[in-house]
Write a structure and sequence with these properties.
Nuclear Transport Factor 2, Chain: A; flat; about 300 residues; alpha+beta; 5-stranded antiparallel β-sheet
Length: about 300
C-alpha cells in the first residue's frame, strides 16, 4: 500500500507545496514604508523649527534688552565751547571800562548773573589768551582751560561752559589758577649712525632745500617718484647752510632703504623794506629713500624732539 504524500493526496506523487503568505515588504512595499517614515520625520523637523526659531529669537531679544547699555549721549561740542569760552575770557579780563564789560558779559551768562562778575576798573588785564584744554564732565558740562598772561604773569582761567545742543552758556564764575608747568624733556634715544649715508646726503639735501625755498622748478629732481612736496612761498626764505645731520643705520621699521633724518637748516630771512637780512635756524625731520644709486626725499616735517638731543 502506497505511503500517503506529506503534501496531501492530490492524485500525483509530487503535489505542489501549499501557497506561502507574501513576506512583508515583498514587491518593494517596504521602500514605501521607509519613504513615509522619512517624510513624516521631515515634516516634524520643519514644524518644530518653524515654531522654535522665532520663539528663541524673541527670547534672546527680550533677555538681552535688560543687559544692553543705553545709547551713548551726544558728544559734548568741544570746539564751539572752546571758542565761546575764549571770547568770554577776553571780555572778562578786560576791565578798562567796567560798565561796557558788564554789558558784554551779559551775552555769555544766564540773565541777571553778569553783575556778579563785576570788578574794579583796571584791576585785570589779559594778553596772549589761548585755549589749552577742554575737560569734559558729561554730555552737557565741561571746563574750558584758557592760558593767559594776567596782569603780566602767566596764569590759567578755568571757564565752566554748559551746552544744550548748539546753545552755550557760562554756567558759573570762572577761576584763576597757576599756569601749567613746563615739561622736562627726556633724553633722546641713542641710535647707531650711518656716516656713509650722511656723507651722501650732505651732497643731496642742500640742493633739495635750495629748491624747496627758492627754486621750485627744480624740486622734482630731488623728490621720490610718486611723492608730492609743496615748496615754500617763493622768496620767503633763502637757504644758507645745512648742519647737524645724523643718519640712523636703519629706519624704525627696519627698512635700510628708508631713513628718517633729523637735520638743522640755516635760512636767511629777507629784510623788510630793504632792511638787513636776518638768520633763522630750524630743525626738520626728512624722510629719504635710497633708490639704488641716489637718495631722494619722500617727506619733510618739523622735528618732534630736537632739544636735549
Amino acid at each position: 500500500m502506497a505511503k500517503p504524500s506529506r503534501y496531501g493526496d492530490s492524485g500525483t506523487g509530487f503535489d505542489a507545496p501549499p501557497a506561502r503568505r507574501p513576506r512583508a515588504g515583498a514587491g518593494g512595499r517596504w521602500w514605501v514604508g521607509v519613504g513615509r517614515a522619512v517624510l513624516w520625520a521631515f515634516i516634524i523637523v520643519v514644524v518644530f523649527n518653524g515654531i522654535w526659531f522665532p520663539l528663541r529669537g524673541g527670547l534672546a531679544l527680550s533677555g538681552g534688552a535688560g543687559e544692553s547699555a543705553p545709547p551713548p549721549p551726544d558728544a559734548y561740542p568741544e570746539t564751539s565751547s572752546a571758542a565761546f569760552a575764549l571770547r568770554f575770557a577776553e571780555v572778562y579780563l578786560d576791565t578798562s571800562d567796567p560798565e561796557r564789560r558788564l554789558g558784554e558779559l551779559a551775552a555769555y551768562v544766564p540773565e541777571g548773573e553778569a553783575s556778579g562778575l563785576n570788578t574794579a576798573a583796571d584791576s585785570l588785564t589779559g594778553e596772549n589768551l589761548t585755549v589749552i584744554a577742554v575737560d569734559v564732565l558729561d554730555e552737557h558740562n565741561a571746563v574750558v582751560v584758557v592760558r593767559a598772561d594776567v596782569n603780566g604773569d602767566p596764569m590759567r582761567l578755568d571757564v565752566p561752559v554748559y551746552a544744550d545742543g548748539d546753545a552755550l552758556v557760562v554756567s558759573g564764575r570762572p577761576a584763576l589758577l597757576a599756569a601749567p608747568t613746563t615739561a622736562t624733556l627726556p633724553q633722546a634715544t641713542a641710535f647707531e649712525a650711518d656716516p656713509l649715508a650722511a656723507q651722501q646726503l650732505q651732497e643731496v639735501l642742500p640742493g633739495f632745500f635750495e629748491a624747496y625755498a627758492g627754486q621750485p622748478e627744480f624740486l622734482e629732481r630731488f623728490v621720490e617718484q610718486g611723492a608730492s612736496i609743496a615748496p615754500l612761498p617763493e622768496s620767503s626764505l633763502e637757504f644758507a647752510e645745512l648742519s647737524d645731520i645724523t643718519v640712523p643705520v636703519r629706519s624704525s621699521t627696519g627698512d635700510d632703504d628708508v631713513r628718517q633724518v633729523p637735520v638743522t637748516v640755516h635760512w636767511t630771512v629777507p629784510g623788510s623794506d630793504g632792511g638787513e637780512a636776518g638768520e633763522l635756524v630750524q630743525d626738520y625731520l626728512v624722510t629719504v629713500v635710497d633708490s639704488g644709486d641716489e637718495w631722494h626725499v619722500r617727506d619733510i616735517q618739523g622735528a618732534p624732539h630736537s632739544f636735549g638731543g
